[in-house]
Amino acid sequence: MTVREIGGVQAWLCAAEGPSLAEDRNLSDLIGELFGAGAKLVAIPLDRLGPDFLRLSSGVAGAVLQKLVNYRFRIAILGDVSAAEAACLPLRDFVRESNRGTTVWFVADLRALEAKLAAS
Fold first, then answer.
1. What are the extents of the domains in the chain?
2. Which CATH entry fits the domain spanning 2-108: 3.30.750, 3.30.70, 1.20.120, 2.60.40?
3. pLDDT tens track for 70-100
């Protein structure tokens, strides 16, 4: 895990490997680390969120994102969600609406996150 400035924002870049952040204890540990590092944004690889994250009915996405938002962190989910979006209209709507805002973004990779921050 690394903290670096991207587009003027202190961003915590989660490693691709590591414990599932869909588990509350692991997410709480991450939040502690975010505060300690002074990060304002956390970039999380989709694989770190478990297989149910993109299945909205599971509640995993809501729980993870709400907890991070409650602590006033911006979130970027890194990964290709296009296949899941194609299979689920509510997910496609959720991703589209999230990407219109400034708090939660779904982006393909770090380069796309950098472009999004530069444009905002």
1. 2-108
2. 3.30.750
3. 999 999 999 999 999 999 999 999 999 999 9
Q: Are 113 and 6 in contact (CB under 8 A)?
A: yes
Q: Which residue has the higher pLDDT, 118 or 39?
A: 39
Q: pTM of the full predicted structure?
A: 0.95
Tokens of 67: 């907890």
Q: Exposed/middle/buried for 38, CB within 10 Å: 0-12, 13-18, 19+? A: exposed
Strand order in the sheet with 2-6: 2-6, 9-13, 41-45, 74-78, 104-107
